[in-house]
Amino acid sequence: MDDIEQAVSAIQDGNLVVYPTETVYGLGADALDPDAIERVFEAKRRAREKPISLAVPDVDTALSHVRLTEREREFMDEFLPGPVTVLCEKRDSVPDVLTAGRSRVGVRIPDHERALELLQHVAPITSTSANVSGRASVTRVSDLDTEIREATAVVIDGGETGGTGSTVVNVERSTIVRRGELADEIEAWLAAEE
């Protein structure tokens, strides 16, 4: 069984995995399982009022979990897969624990072959950096926090990643919530499409 198969099995069993993205390593668990999501918060020592995004392999899969406006769909077609997280209206299938009770959830489609391979088999999974909150994000498996490594069942090594976190965007409000990769291009798109 290769590491992708092991990771799929681990996620289906409610466990955590570390996976590479084009930005930083992510901490993955079943994004629809409240108990698995709790394990992510515990491993990261993350405050429960800070929401966690979800990752999917493509926009069509996202549609099972979020409601998209036409403008959000156009934005996703333009920028995803890529280092961008889009805040979308969640469907009832998305647990409140993931979104800290908010009506929107971040949607991520990573532009990384290994991440997409994992997501083809199991999605949605949590999309949050694989580090203890307050510590630096990880771009190499060798730099994983001991606490994260101990909390995860499988680590998928995808080599060194890009290093800058994703840009978080609320397309409906034309606002960038967190600047990261492609922020200037995203700003230009939002301004041109208003």
Task: Present the secondary structure layout.
Elements (H helix, E strand, L loop, with lengths): L2 H10 L3 E4 L6 E3 L5 H11 L8 E3 L3 H4 L3 E2 L2 H10 L4 E7 L5 H4 L4 E5 L4 H9 L3 E3 L18 H6 E4 L11 E4 L4 E4 L4 H10 L2
Parallel strand pairs: 1-8, 3-6, 5-9
Antiparallel strand pairs: 1-2, 3-7, 4-5, 5-6, 9-10
Helix pairs in contact: 1-6
CATH hierarchy: architecture: Alpha-Beta Complex
Radius of gyration: 15 Å
Number of contiguous helices: 8
The CATH class label is Alpha Beta
CATH superfamily heading: DHBP synthase
Proportion of residues in extended strands: 15-25%
Could you name the ranges where pLDDT drops below 50 across 5 or more consecutive residues?
A: none
Q: Kindly identify the CATH topology.
A: DHBP synthase
Distance between the termini: 49 Å
H/E series, N to C? HEEHEHEHEHEHEHEEEH
Mean pLDDT: 97
Number of strand segments: 10
Biggest beta-sheet profile: 7 strands, mixed
Helix content: 25-40%
Query: What is the 3D shape?
Result: globular
Structure description:
Helices cover 33% and strands 20% of the residues. The chain has 194 residues and is of the alpha/beta class. The chain has a single domain, classed as DHBP synthase, CATH 3.90.870.10. Strands 3, 4, 5, 6, 7, 9 and 10 form a 7-stranded mixed beta sheet that branches. The chain has a 3-stranded mixed beta sheet with strand order 2-1-8. Strand 1 (16-19) and strand 2 form a beta hairpin. Helix 1 crosses helix 6. The longest helix has 11 residues, at 34-44. It is globular, with a radius of gyration of 15 Å. It starts with a helix and ends with a helix. The model has no long low-confidence stretch (mean pLDDT 97).
